[in-house]
Every structure is written in structure tokens, then in C-alpha cells.
Amino acid sequence: MPLHAEHEIHGRRRSRNVGLGLVLLAFVALVFGLTVVKVQQGDMMEAFDHQPRVSVLPAEEPAE
Asked: Is residue 20 pLDDT above 70, yes or no?
């Protein structure tokens, strides 16, 4: 038997901390996943303007 028994409030606080840690970990994983997807699909994006690169787009044929 331990010399100092753990109080009930410490158990509740620990469970809340574990829950919050899991929520934060899930949020970080979500943001990381979205970032990876955006980087993989952003091959036609240039710098911070989020505009398609004109050099990659197919040339438009002139209207006749």
C-alpha cells in the first residue's frame, strides 16, 4: 500500500489531461494530413498567390 493514497481529484484531472492530449493529437494529425494533401495536389500552384501557373497551363487556341 502506498504511503500517500491518490485522491479522487487527481484521477479525474489525469483522465481530463489524457483526453485533451488525445484531442490535440487528433487535431495535429488532421492539420498535417490536410497539409500533405494540399502540397501533393498543389503542383500547379505558385508561391503564396494560389493561382495556377500560366507556364503549366495548356496554350489556348486563338478564337477564329
From this structure: yes
